[in-house]
Amino acid sequence: MNKISIDNIGKYDGQRVTLSGWLVHKRSSGKIRFLVMRDGTGVAQVTLVKSEMDKDHFERYEPLTLESSVVVTGLVKKDKRAPGGHEVLASQIVVVQIAEEYPIAPKEHGVGFLLDHRHLWLRSSKQHAVLKVRHTVIRAARRFFDEQGFTALDAPILTPVACEGTTSLFETDYFEEQKAYLSQSGQLYMEAGAMAFGKVYCCGPTFRAEKSKTRRHLTEFWMIEPEVAFAGLSDIMELAESLIVTIVKEVLSANAEDLKTLERDREKLEAIKSPFESISYDKAVRILQDHGVPFEWGNDLGAADETLISDRFERPVFIHRYPVSAKPFYMKNDPEKPDVVLCMDLLASEGYGEIIGGSAREEDKDALHKKLVEAGLSPEQFSWYLDLRKYGSVPHAGFGMGIERTVAWICGVPHVREAIPFPRLIQRLYP
Ligand code: 4AD
Ligand code: MG
After folding, report:
1. Which pLDDT tens digit goes with each residue over 41-95?
2. Which of 176, 200, 260, 313 is deepest in the core (most CB within 10 A)?
3. How far apart are the first and last CA of the chain?
4. What is the three-class DSSP state of 57?
5. CA gyration radius, the chain
């Protein structure tokens, strides 16, 4: 018996196979009955002909409800009209479970209802397609770094201090009356890793207790963060550009069907090629002001500002050298313009905004100590981090790519909540 997955059905033309899956749809016309089933890899049509199968098995069609689980055995036949170009002429049907009335009907539901049923919503074709793209994005990103000699180094989730500002920390009790915080970024640990391995990356969940209720913010999101020793801002800008080009190319080839399901305009993705444009923060401010936005030099760009700028470019665009005041303590000041830091944000095209943030790191012990104090952080707590500047300190740089923002952009879905299996938002911890 050939137990196969639906994506492979074309290889079994003329053979007897067994498919295991769930019912998507059924219909009957006289002596012929049709089941459309999915198994997570695709959708297949199963045809039941009364005269060609056991009566008992033919009758098992009757009680089947939407999402009932079934195991079907039959002959694979070419059929132009069937989804996937093949159908299965059933000889046996084994019912695993008759599903209760399924709450997600093919009609329109509100997003609150769908998020409450996220554990089931994952089965819907569009959600399934987004998460298949997510799988490719993570695989392609990890492979990109692996092939360039990076070592994957996992960062801790429970941390003693803040990395990205103290206002967005999730706090939890730790032993002996200590406090621990959920990691906002693995970066500081990757800096230690870069001094041990040269080139490292981590990929894992990160947490921000940000009170931002936007389509770009999750309280728990995934980030891939490379860190490179003996590297500067331009090196990591090249690395980030090449990473994004590689990921988009991989999705275009591996997820062609998923992009169709999502009705994604492929041309927009095919346009994502090197070189990306790069503008300074100063120039970005001028663009905003020329568009009548009352933007003051020194502030960080907001979502609307990013959208206005990235809408003007067909490809992702780098913005570099933000004011010191807008960025975290670890970024290195530009020796040629000390009121800005050697940093970059990569804004995705089509108004999606920032998907990558990175910088050169301050490598001088005294300068870093001063920055910690200015940020209101305690240098004692960062003693291990300052050690990295005592023992063979070198210029180094890195960045973080937000997985969900990248996936939302590539898929063309407006909100990051659909780009993660189980989103965590300010008002959502369920399911
Ligand atoms: O710009 P961020 O805050 O940079 C860092 O955390 C650095 N320590 C990374 C590094 O240099 N190793 O975050 C990096 C990326 C953003 O560009 C965005 O894509 C994503 O992480 N991100 C979020 N995604 C979803 N929800 C949020 N609340 C996010 N905050 C940041
Ligand atoms: Mg950022």
Report:
1. 999 999 999 999 999 999 999 999 999 999 999 999 999 988 889 999 999 999 9
2. 200
3. 38
4. helix
5. 26
The Cβ of residue 174 has, within 10 Å, a number of other Cβ atoms equal to: 12
The domain spans of the chain are 2-97, 116-419
Single out the residue of 102, 389, 138, 397 nearest to residue 254, CA to CA: 138
Name the residue of 137, 167, 184, 185 to mutate for ligand 1: max ligand atoms within 8 A of Cβ. 185
Query: Is ligand 1 within 6 A of the CB of residue 400?
Result: yes
Residue among 22, 31, 222, 253 nearest 122 (CA)? 22
Compute the mean pLDDT over every residue in the chain, rounded to the nearest whole number. 96
Q: Which CATH class name applies to 2-97?
A: mainly beta
Determine the Cα–Cα distance for residues 363 and 18; give it in Å rounded to an integer.
61
Pull the structure tokens for residue 413.
Answer: 């879905």
Tell me the H-state helices in 148-232.
187-197
Structure tokens belonging to residue 280: 């300074």
Q: What is the pLDDT of residues 106-144, one digit of tens each?
A: 788 999 999 999 999 999 999 999 999 999 999 999 999
70, 68, 110: which is closest to 93 by C-alpha?
70
pLDDT for the residue numbered 165: 87
Domain 116-419 matching CATH 1.10.10.10: the answer reads no
* SS3 at position 428: strand
**374 neighbors 272 (Cβ within 8 angstroms):** no
Omega prior to 275 cis, within 30 of 0: yes
How high is the pLDDT of residue 405? Answer: 98
Atom number of ligand 1 nearest to Cα 212: 28
Ligand 1 atom with minimal separation from the 223 CA: 21
Q: What is the DSSP letter of 295?
A: P
Kindly list the protein residues that place their beta carbon closer than 5 angstroms to ligand 2, a single-atom ion: 357
Binding site membership of 416 for ligand 1 (Cβ less than 6 Å): yes
- Helix then strand count (H, E) for the chain reads 13, 19
Measured CA to CA, the distance from residue 78 to residue 204 in angstroms comes to 44
Q: Measured from the CB, is residue 236 less than 6 Å from ligand 1?
A: no
Residue with tokens 């074709």: 125
**pLDDT value at 1 more than 80:** no
For residue 213, name the pLDDT band (cuts at 50, 70, 90). Answer: confident
Question: Helix or strand or coil: residue 179?
Answer: strand
Atom of ligand 1 nearest to the CA of 184: 6
- Report the Cα 258 to chain-centroid distance in Å: 15
